[in-house]
Amino acid sequence: MVDVTTLTVDQLLGIATKDKDVISNLIEDKTNVRDFIREYNVTDGVVLVPNYKVYYDYCRKWRPAGKKLSKIGFLRKFNVAFYSKRTKNTRYYLLDQGAFETDKESLNEAKEFDKRYRNKVAKKRKQKIESKVSSIAKEIQLEDETGLY
After folding, report:
1. How many whole angstroms from its chain centre is CA 52?
2. Signed CA dihedral, 47, 50, 54, 57: sign only
3. In this predicted structure, which of 5-19, 86-100, 117-131 has the lowest mean pLDDT?
4. Which sequence spans correspond to the domains of the chain?
């Protein structure tokens, strides 16, 4: 973190004007989304950037070892700050060209990451359901054995 007391007035004004819209939208945010937006220099623009690319950069390129939000949690916070547009399968954000690489190779890498992430989430959800079903079955079996149903 930067020590605010060592910054000049011009530096503070620059930060305030650059971040004013994002900061006002995320003023109450206790997560690291605001830090990501500030440090990654994400601003409104005209380039359509898919949500999976934004989340990929958040997870893999920006502070890769830090604690991260889930995709849903992150995108809910990000959506507060930036305008989005939806197609049939994907949500896009209208952002400035500079923050995200949108070449085909970078998008494919992010899409693969998204596919692995979705599979991992689906697997966890399935395991949770199976665990719940098996615990209910054990309860029923126990009730049958003891005659307490």
Report:
1. 9
2. negative
3. 5-19
4. 4-146
